[in-house]
Design a protein that fits this description.
By secondary structure, the protein is mainly beta. It has one domain: Jelly Rolls (Sandwich), CATH 2.60.120. It is 7% helix and 54% strand. The protein has 1 helix and 7 strands, in the order E-E-E-E-E-E-E-H. Strands 1, 2, 3, 4, 5, 6 and 7 form a 7-stranded antiparallel beta sheet that branches. It is globular.
Length: 112
């Protein structure tokens, strides 16, 4: 058994989103993304299916030529290789569920 908290040790960055691995299981990696209002994760895609859960705040989630306004409690699931972007409209705590085969380094490169 493994446990983690999405709300402990929150350290936001002023210049870009803060990305950290909360825990890894045999099948997935659970990533926390902390975004300040006005921060952007430019368009990118994941090599495997993902789930994005907004724990706190608000973001504009661009996908398939439209912008979805996600708020606290919202989830979105995407198949592999779907281009998407995130723009933070209110300080946010985001949970990103990745395949075990995916890399957190890939996610970090999006914000660098």
């Amino acid at each position: 058994m493994k446990t983690a908290s999405i709300t402990e040790h929150l350290v936001y960055k002023t210049d870009k989103p803060a990305i950290s691995v909360m825990l890894e299981s045999d099948h997935s990696k659970e990533i926390r993304i902390l975004m300040r209002k006005g921060q952007l994760m430019k368009e990118h895609k994941a090599p495997n299916a993902i789930v994005v859960a907004l724990f706190e705040g608000e973001i504009n989630f661009g996908v398939n030529g439209e912008t979805l306004k996600l708020k606290k409690g919202d989830l979105i699931a995407l198949e592999a290789n779907v281009p998407h972007d995130l723009y933070c409209t209110e300080d946010a705590i985001i949970r990103l569920s990745l395949s075990k085969n995916d890399s957190v380094d890939r996610v970090n490169k999006i914000v660098d």
